[in-house]
Amino acid sequence: QLSILLPCDGSVASATLLEETDHNLFQQMDPSVSMTSSVLIGNLTQDWVESLRRWHLEYFFIPSTVVTLATLVANPVLLICIFLTRALRQETRYLLVANTLAADMLFLILNLVTLICNTVTAQISWLLCELVTALTVTSYCCAILTVTLMVVDTYAAVRWPLHYHDILPPARTHRILFGVWFLAAVYPFTLVVLMELERGPSHDNMAVCLVLISLGFIQLNHMVGIHIFFFVGALICTGLIFYCYIRLYMVTRTQGIWENRFSRARVTLLAHGLLLLLYFAPGFVFTLELFLFHRADISQDVRVWVSTVNMCVFMLLPRAFAPYLYGLRYREISDTLMQLLPQHWRLNQATVS
């Protein structure tokens, strides 16, 4: 039943109409179905805009913009440091860092554009919103997969130090990163194609374009696939990360690197663990959002609050910390950055230190 997609205070006539509309209607190529879907989308987006304005949640746009712009300044600088230095771009760990930063930049740009359009209530076509949704999911999943590979790369470097460069040469790393982008993109764009084929030609516009709303409607026909993609994928990555860290501790616990409370190993593990938590937590919150999206006993205001905070705060935190926890903590990147800075600025920094 689709009555839950209407505003909580919707009319009795609209609720009755939706109660008579079952799941199979969305699988038929019928003009009346397209009209019903258009009514559902219009009602939901209009009520979403009203909730945003009632609670003044558009002010979340200000800190989101500041954090996004600051990150979009830091990430390109680190990417330049990596790709301008031959030694860095030949190292697997730096290529993984660069791929994470690139995926984060794509995500931040799409997120900022979406926030701007939603704030000014610009009318966006349904197809364009679906494409933005697919790109956003792709960039987020690519970042998650890459940070998982960074843990695997650390485990391989410690476990097989003599054969590490033979296992992961630069050419193989490039192929792996291409495979990561392909794996992250294949399912979201497949959903876009399937939805376009099921809905047929349409000129619907949306006042609010959100990944939650797009996937919420897609979820009606592809419930199992979407939950497998997000939840099972997250569990696999989490399990792989825990396995690698546990094995790393077991291999290195007799080497004395964990005895000092502020040893480099402990600080590195703490920094990586914090960043991994920040990357994975919004994904689990988003899975909760998908679950709440179709619950009739959850008010629209709760859904709007959870979605806004997750998109404007939780999603941005790991991308704001990543340049500093993953980028500048590497001594080679810091040294390269200092070499690229003007000479008088470097002298001032040396004087202050």
Description:
- This protein has 353 residues and is an all-alpha fold.
- It has one domain (56-341): Rhopdopsin 7-helix transmembrane proteins (Up-down Bundle), CATH 1.20.1070.10.
- 76% of the residues lie in helices and 1% in strands.
- The chain has helices at 12-19, 31-54, 61-84, 86-89, 92-119, 126-159, 164-167, 170-199, 211-218, 223-252, 264-293, 300-314, 317-327, 331-340, 343-352; strands at 124-125, 205-206.
List keywords for this structure.
single chain; 353 residues; mainly alpha; 1% strand; disordered N terminus; GPCR1_Superfamily_Member
Topology:
Elements: H1 12-19, H2 31-54, H3 61-84, H4 86-89, H5 92-119, E1 124-125, H6 126-159, H7 164-167, H8 170-199, E2 205-206, H9 211-218, H10 223-252, H11 264-293, H12 300-314, H13 317-327, H14 331-340, H15 343-352
Antiparallel strand pairs: 1-2
Helix pairs in contact: 2-12, 3-5, 3-13, 3-14, 5-6, 5-8, 5-13, 6-8, 6-10, 9-11, 10-11, 11-12, 11-13
